[in-house]
Write a structure and sequence with these properties.
Elements: H1 4-8, E1 16-17, H2 22-32, E2 36-41, E3 44-50, H3 51-59, H4 70-73, E4 80-82, H5 87-97, E5 101-106, E6 109-115, H6 116-139
Parallel strand pairs: 1-2, 4-5
Antiparallel strand pairs: 2-3, 5-6
Length: 141
């Protein structure tokens, strides 16, 4: 069983600083191709800003994206997994919280973000491997 630590090895974390405007955060997210960015203040995790926050808390409330700060519209109810947890444990937490992303922590430091897509890809690869092993076992006689 693969741990989260194995999966995120070498991955870059895309974050924004507290005090960043929504417009700057959205442009950064678009540039990096991500749907969520953790928000840091003095290196500490204080929230996340996502596409969903943009839609529900900015656009739907007709706030100005240039003057609104991510601090005012970010989510602070965070779903977190420790780095040594399994992908199954992370997926269970995400399912319970009904979220598409989970933040990864090691000794109270942010070390990564996983999406449902990441975890589904891992699960699919594990299933393919199992099918291949079973196929080889059945047809090798």
């Amino acid at each position: 069983m693969e741990t989260i630590k194995d999966i995120i090895k070498g991955r870059e974390i895309y974050t924004v600083e507290s005090g960043t405007s929504v417009k700057a955060a959205v442009n950064y997210m678009a540039e990096k191709g991500v749907g969520l960015v953790p928000v840091l203040k003095d290196g500490k995790l204080v929230g996340v800003f996502s596409e969903r926050d943009l839609v529900k808390r900015v656009i739907a409330k007709e706030k100005d994206i240039n003057s609104t700060l991510v601090d005012d519209v970010m989510s602070t109810n965070l779903v977190i997994a420790k780095i040594d947890e399994t992908t199954e444990q992370a997926m269970a937490k995400m399912k319970e919280a009904k979220t598409r992303h989970i933040l990864l922590i090691d000794n109270d430091n942010l070390v990564g973000v996983l999406s449902v897509r990441d975890l589904l890809e891992i699960d699919l690869n594990q299933c393919k491997t199992t099918v291949e092993v079973l196929h080889n076992y059945i047809y090798s006689k």
